[in-house]
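Dear colleagues,

For the upcoming journal club I promised to circulate an example of a predicted protein-ligand complex. I picked one with zinc ion because it came up in last month's discussion. The inputs are reproduced below in full, followed by the predicted structure.
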Amino acid sequence: MPEFIFASEVADLLPPALRGRPVVVAVAPHQSAKHAIEALGVPHTEIGAVAVNGQKRPISTRLAAGDRVEVFPRAPAAAVPGGETPRFIADAHLGRLARYLRFAGIDTLWKNAWDDAELVAIAVGERRVALTCDRALLMHRTLREGCYLRSRQPLAQLAAVARRYALELGAPQASRCLECNAVPRPVGKAEIAAELLPRTLAAFDEFWRCPGCARIYWRGSHWQRMRTALATAVRAPPATSSSNAA
Ligand SMILES: [Zn+2]
């Protein structure tokens, strides 16, 4: 039977009784490493590399009895100056995380009505990273990029996504619409005067309108609260995996 050695960064996804030691399990003839590892609870999206008998191998490698399989975590992305920022799709339970990401200007789709198959199809079709606390979703065969979130707290989730994808959250320049993900455009005060309260018009000079849902934005107290929350999330030390295991 093959023996699996999981790096500590992914070992928290194993059943508690299997953590902290090599795992020996029977596999069907010619079963792939991916299938065997996912059967133990670790989605392929969380794995950076697999070595079989000391040699790096694709995760689709077929296993034989007696193989020694080492499983390594996905390394966090390195920040690439001017590099392409990843785009995301968040599952139905992650509405607050999606709003934080949009506030930071990061392209994030979210609807509470998608089922898993629809979400995976959009993620694959648009090359988006699927964000979820649901490991089964990440085990969909076709899904290439996904991120398992260990915390249920939106700001801790935000910090985890920012670390893994080297996102710059500190200085949101052009936020996306919190409701629909479009990029709001500057709009003149005169154009929106009829739609806002006089005290809002008096207190602020810069306004933006979302081309997707027509919502108007300005940098009032809600904007300040979101900005403070983002700054706090960025400064927070990484949570240890052991204290957040689902
Ligand atoms: Zn909008």
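Two points we might discuss: The chain has two domains: 3-73, 78-237. The first strand starts at residue 3 and ends at 6.

See you all on Thursday,
B. R.
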